[in-house]
Design goal:
The protein is α+β, with helices and mostly antiparallel strands and 181 residues long. It has five helices and five strands; from the N terminus they run ααβαβαββαβ.
């Protein structure tokens, strides 16, 4: 049987419904089991040679969230989120040679899984960039007390949205080429 495209499929619906959420309901906290499901989803991401070069710092202390929001130019919403996840790269699990930068792809896959799991569970989040900007990495490393060899990659504030958001339709058939350009 040939599968057909439908937005009724839960996974497809969550992927197409995901949008960046920057405003969170201050009355709703993220239950520990929900957070664990999100982190399990992150760790289910593919990684080169299964190195899993990621570590995650869950931040739910309002003072630390405020410090991170102040340190990062596009993460002001973190100060009002119930929690944030800082996705970090662990140099001890990076590949060597020409594959030494594949950790960026691995952490990107884990980050997208966080955002998709959040969407599936009724939460919202937004990917805010840290790496490759030293002026962002250094303060985040200091705020979180990251050890040497751990690189803060991004910060993803998470929470329950304050209102419904309509995702953008990003479909553009002109970006598809078949067999050759």
């Amino acid at each position: 049987m040939t599968p057909t495209f439908t937005t009724e499929n839960k996974v497809i619906k969550d992927i197409l419904g995901r949008t960046s959420i920057r405003e969170y309901d201050p009355e709703r906290k993220v239950h520990p089991e929900v957070l664990e499901a999100i982190l399990r989803s992150a760790m289910a991401a593919p990684s080169a040679v299964n190195k899993q070069p990621w570590s995650f710092v869950v931040v739910d202390d309002p003072d630390i969230l405020a410090k991170l929001a102040a340190a990062l130019p596009y993460a002001h919403m973190a100060a009002h989120a119930p929690l944030a996840i800082v996705v970090c790269g662990d140099r001890s699990r990076f590949l060597e040679g020409t594959d030494s930068t594949l950790w960026v792809q691995d952490l990107s896959a884990a980050s997208e899984n966080i955002l998709l799991a959040a969407e599936a569970l009724g939460l919202g989040g937004v990917w805010t960039c840290i790496y490759p900007h030293a002026e962002r990495e250094d303060p985040v490393s200091a705020i979180l007390g990251l050890p040497d060899g751990i690189i803060p990659f991004n910060l993803i504030p998470l929470g329950y949205p304050t209102r419904a958001h309509k995702p953008k339709d990003k479909w553009d058939s002109s970006k598809i080429h078949r067999n050759k350009w």
